[in-house]
Amino acid sequence: MAKLIDGKAVSASVRAQVAQEVQELKAKGLHPGLAVVIVGDDPASRTYVNNKKKACAETGIYSEEYALPAATTQEELLSLVRSLNQKPEIHGILVQSPLPEGLDEEAVIEEINPQKDVDAFHPQNVGRIMIGNFHFLPCTPAGVIELIRSQGIEIAGKRCVVIGRSNIVGKPMAMLLLHNHGTVTICHSKTRDLAEICREADILVAAVGRPKFVTENMVKPGAVVIDVGMDRDENGKLCGDVDFVHVEPKAGYITPVPGGVGPMTIAMLLRNTVTAAKLQAGWKD
Ligand code: GUN
């Protein structure tokens, strides 16, 4: 029986810390503010954006939403980002992805002032993460590290395997585990002997986007299994990248879906917004 890592509880504690810090900053005249930009009407994106706004309100962070039609042009979107870059009450800018067909997401990210890039997607921030001299960490991988730490699990010296190599999760996840002195392997769709490699992992992070992809034969007894997936099973029910029912008895620790990594992502976004405010106020180097 694995110990369940409760993302809701850990995220509540991060949010409480953020709320406390927001109060302290406000008392000193600094009110952290986040702008969330959504283009088009993707229902999943709409839910994420609503959750982000609600989380801001609950922690005392000022937020603005910019909901643009799917027909928005690249220039209109870039122009909005430029105006948000100039707005003093906005410290963090988040452009919800995916953007509708025809819009160049990379160009939009590059237009964001790196000090306001609370997703840490700008090439300058990605470079900073590579070097280990960063202001912000991307929300999902940062949330995973927080979950591992919350259990008092040591990463240093451990064999860590990340399945998935996306820019948002897999690559930065591997880098953060490396910064924490893990011995890291990144697996992907072309990896040979995937199950064998995964079975070596003391810490296994699944970020593939395929329902129940990680099966019991891919897990070492007692391993820490972190499930970043948000998938639908054959019945349309929400599930993760890990076959929870069969893996859970074998793992040492496991994150559920929902209620594992998911709640952490927004908590880390709030923390990044506070960091961004302090950075722009010159209160943090
Ligand atoms: N879409 C899904 N996850 C994310 C995220 O972390 N940031 C942004 N901007 N868009 C997303």
TrEMBL record:
Tagged with keyword Thylakoid: no
Gene Ontology biological process terms from the UniProt entry: L-histidine biosynthetic process; methionine biosynthetic process; purine nucleotide biosynthetic process; tetrahydrofolate interconversion
Domain Tetrahydrofolate dehydrogenase/cyclohydrolase catalytic: 5-119
Gene Ontology CC terms, in alphabetical order: cytosol
Catalytic activity: (6R)-5,10-methylene-5,6,7,8-tetrahydrofolate + NADP(+) = (6R)-5,10-methenyltetrahydrofolate + NADPH; (6R)-5,10-methenyltetrahydrofolate + H2O = (6R)-10-formyltetrahydrofolate + H(+)
Alphabetized UniProt keyword annotations: Amino-acid biosynthesis, Histidine biosynthesis, Hydrolase, Methionine biosynthesis, Multifunctional enzyme, NADP, One-carbon metabolism, Oxidoreductase, Purine biosynthesis
Domain of life of the native organism: Bacteria
Pathway named in the protein's UniProt entry: One-carbon metabolism; tetrahydrofolate interconversion
E.C. number(s) listed in UniProt: 1.5.1.5, 3.5.4.9
Xref: PANTHER family: C-1-TETRAHYDROFOLATE SYNTHASE, CYTOPLASMIC, C-1-TETRAHYDROFOLATE SYNTHASE, CYTOPLASMIC-RELATED
Protein name as annotated: Bifunctional protein FolD
Annotated source species: Candidatus Caccousia stercoris
Organism lineage: Bacteria, Bacillati, Bacillota, Clostridia, Eubacteriales
Gene: folD
